[in-house]
User: Fold this.
Amino acid sequence: MFMNSDNAGPAHPKVMAAVTRENEGWQGSYGADAAMARVTATVRELFEAPEAAVYLVATGTAANVLALATLTQPFQTIFCAPAAHIHEDECNAPEFYTGGAKLTLVGSGDKLTPEALEASIAGEEMRGVHGPQRGPVALTQTTELGRVYTVAEVEALCGVAKSYGLPVYLDGARFANALAALNCTPADMTWRAGVDALSLGGTKNGCLGVEAVIFFDPARAWEFELRRKRGAHLFSKHRYLSAQMEAYLEDGLWLDCARTANSRCARLADGLRGLDGVSFLHDPQANALFARLPREMHRRLFAAGAEYHLWGVPDSEVEREGGPLLSRMVCDWSLPESAVDRFVGIARG
Amino acid sequence: MFMNSDNAGPAHPKVMAAVTRENEGWQGSYGADAAMARVTATVRELFEAPEAAVYLVATGTAANVLALATLTQPFQTIFCAPAAHIHEDECNAPEFYTGGAKLTLVGSGDKLTPEALEASIAGEEMRGVHGPQRGPVALTQTTELGRVYTVAEVEALCGVAKSYGLPVYLDGARFANALAALNCTPADMTWRAGVDALSLGGTKNGCLGVEAVIFFDPARAWEFELRRKRGAHLFSKHRYLSAQMEAYLEDGLWLDCARTANSRCARLADGLRGLDGVSFLHDPQANALFARLPREMHRRLFAAGAEYHLWGVPDSEVEREGGPLLSRMVCDWSLPESAVDRFVGIARG
Amino acid sequence: MFMNSDNAGPAHPKVMAAVTRENEGWQGSYGADAAMARVTATVRELFEAPEAAVYLVATGTAANVLALATLTQPFQTIFCAPAAHIHEDECNAPEFYTGGAKLTLVGSGDKLTPEALEASIAGEEMRGVHGPQRGPVALTQTTELGRVYTVAEVEALCGVAKSYGLPVYLDGARFANALAALNCTPADMTWRAGVDALSLGGTKNGCLGVEAVIFFDPARAWEFELRRKRGAHLFSKHRYLSAQMEAYLEDGLWLDCARTANSRCARLADGLRGLDGVSFLHDPQANALFARLPREMHRRLFAAGAEYHLWGVPDSEVEREGGPLLSRMVCDWSLPESAVDRFVGIARG
Amino acid sequence: MFMNSDNAGPAHPKVMAAVTRENEGWQGSYGADAAMARVTATVRELFEAPEAAVYLVATGTAANVLALATLTQPFQTIFCAPAAHIHEDECNAPEFYTGGAKLTLVGSGDKLTPEALEASIAGEEMRGVHGPQRGPVALTQTTELGRVYTVAEVEALCGVAKSYGLPVYLDGARFANALAALNCTPADMTWRAGVDALSLGGTKNGCLGVEAVIFFDPARAWEFELRRKRGAHLFSKHRYLSAQMEAYLEDGLWLDCARTANSRCARLADGLRGLDGVSFLHDPQANALFARLPREMHRRLFAAGAEYHLWGVPDSEVEREGGPLLSRMVCDWSLPESAVDRFVGIARG
Assistant:
């Protein structure tokens, strides 16, 4: 009943097998391995983007901040949601990598709206040289609260960005979960909608630790490579990153894993929906459920060994009297149906 | 009728005379001039702080960001008001100088409250290593909207900061205006209330361009000196900064200038108060008035050559139909009473 | 006959097996995995340093720059050899991570001498606030030219650093090779000799990609953790780093691999020594041989598929007429004796 | 007999008078003052560069590092002489402002040669993504050792830079002294020779504190403005910078001051040349003399109140036995002939 996060489960056996298989003989280092060439070809094909520049790094934060640093000048500001990982969970890595750019928080919560984005962008640069200049728009798909931007929503947001000449970056740590939810093509959700660069997460969805960074316009590819090296994120034995990503994208494994994760989450929601005192922040759209549960239900679950996070309050809160407490349950590909069912059983009491 | 800002008037004749007087013979460079030794002694006496480290720089932004960089680690966040100069008007200089620290916006508007500060500080570090760590609290006195923190308010805010072990920095670009308004001692408004470091502005109040940075605890003084040099803010012919500050602090000139500026602003408010369609954001407490005026009154004033800023809307807005528009009038020491009276006369129509 | 580098061979089967074994169930993320606790205990025991703080990252550059950034202020300079990896091969990562510190190149070549270090340190800070301040001394063991500092040499260099109150960092990307060569204890070569922090490399010696950073004084451990996160080097599925390092240090595997690599290199040197036109930059002390070979010998070797680097000249140089060309051959644990023998055979013609 | 530096004398009376004159009424702030428009026009005319972007800052270091940061990517290296101010005397400001770029020291001493520059540039980027990329070439005119690049020398160095597509920056803290020495036009010494950007120093040659930064190609002008603001170097009461520069450039005052300074230095050299035990590092070409004097002569001069620097050794050295000690005497416009003559008289004993 591990639903703390999707970053604590094992790698998919096919991914692990690929890593093991890769462990033969010598390979070019620093990205010159044969597997990387195949990964680039595969990503280009999947995204219908024959010119795309494709790079691998080992952490989602590295993907985010290296891509953003390539798109941002230090005197600019990045527009993002207040709940964005780049704002809340990267210990100032974006500020560090951009050389001191600012993050402008747009609206509230996890999801940008075109109206809030428009207002936020319009509001900057009223101060000329005194305020930060407008920089990239950063979306997260799926969002930190487990929601999914529809293709039309991505288009609308990119439209606002483009009307100001700003690039759009998409943090796709859970890209596959969103794609599985939307049932569209990678191209539809990205460059066709106006996205300029994205991360394509593997770590949370069946890999050991690998994320692809994709630039649809390769003009700044070399700069990215230099920033990756300067950030100490260029692996000498890069082959092991490549092998993971190759297996992950092969035969749709990435989407299979995402669909499994999403369906576990739906099953969990179905099991909890309608129980006394239970309500959802919103209906789950991918692999994360944000649910308010009665404290007594939390206690029962924790006592039975369920693992998940209370959201925005310390764990100790569960022992006190009071109303339902918001919690986050995240399902990854490895979570068995039986664990979901057991969780629901305990919740039902 | 120049009320655009307090950064566009002339220097006080006594300050200018001091600069001219200083222009004789050779002097030690880089702060080793005789006048600087006198400035340090004077500041220590005025602030009843015999150990204080005192430095001069030429811009308010330099004072802010060098002091903050000395107090902040790059993985921390600085707590400040959304309207703070360091957030809105320094083109990411704090992020640059701190090596990428973040600014956490506390509450709304220009003025911190202890409750909002407490909530904001408490909210950070729930994420351990993932989020930024708590850093300094930055106050602005007088605020960007011309308000003054009482000594009790400064004490309460510092109390919150201290309860978390955080240092407090005070942006005193208009320190003299606040002091004149509060009629307290410099020590009461700063170290006795819990302030660790501040800037003492001269530029907006009768100088050509000089600000003192004061650290009550000299432990990090040498680091400040290195950061000043590294920031390219150490003047070789430092004597001209010293001469300004010396004249500014001599015989209470700084407070005289501030009192004059504040009284001009009060006169302006008295003249506008109660006019049809006129309302104030708040009663002016120092040298800045934020007043909503009917558009037709704005047009009349602009036509007559009055200079001031519309606040938050482009100038062109004044030509359109609609309700009153908020404007900011700032008075400096050099604004004649007659200019205020003429302004009021035109406003009255 | 792959001797290009020790970063292109496979991981040792025991290391790979450990990674595969680790791929079961859920584990605490971000370093809270069970294996990491065991790694910390093992490192402390091996280094006889029960208080040491131990961290894992995935690249040698990350280890170097995160450790150095923790030890260096941005207005300081790091003393290192001109051939140091941090100077030549990290694309300004040290300057980036330290917030703009400088590297002062001491003497020439790959190895510091106490005399050159003393002169270099003494030479800095003659300019007071104008020049950079003295920062850490960075050693590389084994050096970029494959040489080993004896324990006495490390002690002497640390002695110079300590006499100025400067910390010493040791880049141990090839720490095991040095230890195998010196046949001393880890403690002797590090903290007992005066080293404050080091990286303990795994990547080049049998791992997929993992390096330990060790601080003997844990006072700045938390700062390191924040810098690691801020640098995007904290792995969510950290368990796979831990598993590598655990297997690497178990039952002396790290030293076995290093001894194998070193002995291959010795065999290679033995095979080439005395051949017509062949000379060595210095006798190999660990796993790298720098040898001048006649151009015709290079051509023969390259034609037969030998892989190694010409040093300081482009590969095309080998086709031109002229004297012997310097080359670097690096042996890793996976290089078979037969490959060495074949290489020698071709060289002998 | 003050020859410590050219940064410790008074401002020229005409410059001071201009500052005083400027102290009337209100002026646009942040560079929007009327005087700045005139300065821009004058600089463009003097440099025969009608498109040039012209900015003012208050310190030479600010001019250097803001211009270089505009021309340099953080993953590049700046080519400069080991004695360059940007390397030795700016406490890592270039590394700070560029976001961590490196400085590659070319050859030895104060002056670049085309051969050394070519070798140094060619040597970088042999390491691809691993080493820093080639960035700007930075010259200093006059050099730190008081020498002057001829126009042909500047052309040759720019030629090397251009052959690699690299921009050239000229640190002209003592530009006027060089111009006076060469008796050429500003255009000849700069853009016609291949210089892309320069600082035009005022501080050391009759001003209180002002340097112009000139970009011949205005393409990156706006970026410079943002970097200046972000660096806290944009003055609100900018008029006082403008007034200095305006007076400085008016009627050839800048060249008059430089000629005076240079001739004082020549007179000093003439007076010392040939004395027993006296030798020059090189014949003075502008306003600085580097002379080896017998220790007893130093003692006599110091005892009589002469002020100048021993070069590369602590002052205490003068009390010990030994050979002549190198010293630096710098003459500014304000040094009277009589002071020179008195100095020479004492030296002669």
